[in-house]
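Weekend entry, working from home. Most of the wet-lab plans are on hold until the incubator is repaired, so I used the time to fold the two sequences that have been sitting in the queue since the last round of cloning. Logging both here for the record. First:
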Amino acid sequence: MTSSTRTLLHTVDGPNGSAALYEVVSPGQAQPSYEVEFGGTTTKFLSMGEAYIEAGQMSGTPT
């Protein structure tokens, strides 16, 4: 069994802190999913655009 791979794509820095945007590829998954880590919490998204916008909102730097 192969595990998921998680790759850091971008870090958005702002007045509220830093939000890290990751691409997650799982075996058998047709398309990658995306995760944003901010303040000790990880939020999952289906699209990179949505994740990137949310990372900007969390960090306080609109993207």
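Second, folded right after the first finished:
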Amino acid sequence: MDTLDLMETKYHLIESSLSESEAILAHDACNLAMAFIGQVNGRIRRTWAISAN
């Protein structure tokens, strides 16, 4: 799953939430997942750049 898919899921979950707290939880959980994806992708790129040299 990439960040675009996750954004789409995030907004679908927010729209279908039954309460404000549920919408906030979905929003925060997806933001944390996107931050994790960004960190992992950054590490993979750095590792590849080091190994390419």
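Plan for Monday: verify the second prediction. Helices lie at 3-15, 20-52.
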